[in-house]
Write a structure and sequence with these properties.
The radius of gyration is 30 Å and the shape is rod-shaped. The protein has 190 residues and is of the alpha+beta class. Helix 3 links the parallel strand 5 and strand 6. The longest helix has 19 residues. It is 31% helix and 25% strand. Strands 5, 6, 7, 8 and 9 form a five-stranded mixed sheet that branches. A four-stranded mixed sheet has the order 2-1-4-3.
């Protein structure tokens, strides 16, 4: 007799992924004897499991148990693969929209020249138009910390230049050797 923890379980070949169990019971995997059948093609009704499977077969769709804890369980006649695809698509869309809350950072020194300033402004405008917040950061290296005033003026000039696209959340703050300012996008009219 084998006393290993996985005794009795079927083994999967090396490198093969074990099958994920589906979140719903479908077709022959439904265990209830009577079910409430719902669908877009007909009125809801309570029938035996065999009749429900015949209805799903008639429309060439799947019978999916969507509410197993009710009495009798509710089963819907639908294309299950299409349903799973739409669920994945919605989850992906939600994930993409939540990524928009990210903050894009722009770094510069206190003595950034005009061309670099304009270049970084254009990037910030693009980020704000896409819906991202922009964190402007002036870094002071070595003795450049004596130019704190220049750094603050640079950030204020930046905020003024981006006035049509975003508004500052806070005034420039100095933390260690970095001065930061965060600009949020203005709400876009649809």
């Amino acid at each position: 007799m084998n006393n290993t923890p996985n005794a009795g379980k079927p083994r999967t070949p090396m490198g093969a992924r074990p099958k994920k169990e589906s979140q719903h019971r479908i077709n022959e995997h439904i265990t209830a004897q009577t079910v409430r059948v719902v669908g877009e093609q007909f009125e809801p009704k309570i029938v035996s499991l065999r009749e429900a499977l015949a209805i799903a077969d008639k429309y060439e769709l799947d019978l999916v148990e969507i509410s197993p804890n009710t009495n009798p369980p509710v089963c819907k006649v639908m294309d299950y693969q299409k349903y799973l695809y739409e669920q994945k698509k919605k989850a992906k869309e939600i994930k993409a929209n939540s990524a928009k809350n990210a903050v894009k950072e722009i770094h510069m020194g206190p003595q950034t020249d005009e061309h670099d300033f304009n270049f970084k402004c254009n990037h910030a405008i693009k980020f704000l138009q896409e819906g991202y917040k922009v964190k402007l950061q002036v870094y002071f290296r070595g003795r450049s910390i004596i130019y704190k005033d220049q750094g603050e003026l640079l950030l204020l000039r930046f905020a003024e230049r981006l006035g049509d696209y975003g508004k500052p959340d806070q005034m420039p703050t100095l933390a260690g050797r970095n001065m930061t300012m965060i600009i949020s996008p203005k709400s876009q009219k649809k």
